[in-house]
Write the structure tokens for this entry.
Amino acid sequence: MTFNDLQAWSAPVNLPTAEGVTELSMPFTARYIATAVPVKSGTVDATATFYLQYN
């Protein structure tokens, strides 16, 4: 399954500026286009790639 939907991009996340912070929350949502073949509900293994932009 190819997942390349620009509408799936979430809002920018500000990187923490406090010293010693090692965790970052990057919430996102994902969606898919259903096929014509009926499928049962279940879980899907997925990976997400995050591109960091430094300004």
Observations:
- Residues 34 and 42 are 14 Å apart (CA to CA).
- The chain is about 0% helix and 0% strand.
